[in-house]
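pasting for the record
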Amino acid sequence: MTQLRRISLADSVVEATIDLIVEGGLAPGSAIPSVGELAARFGVSVVVVREAIATLCGRGILERRQGREAIVCRPDPDVVSSMLRMQVRFDDVGLVELQQCRAALEMQSVVYAARQPDANRDTTAMFDALRQMEQATSVLELRDADILFHSALVDIAGNKALVLLVQALHAVAVDSLDQIYSRLLSDGIPAAALTLGSHEPIAVAVRDGDVAAAIKAMSRHFELSLPDIDYGLLSMPDVLGSSRAKRPSRVA
């Protein structure tokens, strides 16, 4: 019988059940053991197990079925994003910290994307997002095109962990992008032209497999959005050392 810490039994059962799912290789759609079996396994009451299952269902990890055991679900990215968004607000995480975090992740994304073999570097979705930026008539449309662009970029990068993290940040990025675009407009800066102009060099560099140009374009992108922020590694010239030779441009 697995012994649990007695600090918070329900929370302990939640974590132990997640371990059971992961270590047991339970795929989405698989049923977990019965409430009684879990209670015996973890040495707690069925009431505590039911509370833990309710928590897991609320997180989108499990799904209850009428008269049957709960089954494993693939967590909805929107659930993760919503939880992160609430935590950001509760912890009073500001725009500067969010932009610094986004910049670090986006720099990794653009490097991995530009390094992908030609066959894996399909930039069609990125250029589609650029066309949406060009045709945008509102801040809302610009923001949505912005998020689509960065989603396409991280998909090309091919790093699953980055995909999860960037997707989770998108809900929070909505708020930060709204603030950025509002600042641009209040300063009389043409947001649409600036947005398109700062994203297009990124797409071109990734399309061409030019890591150095991709790093430079991503750095410039963040510096244009909020120039007064210290972006750390983005401003260090050594990051250009891993670039490879630029290859001829081709149509996306």
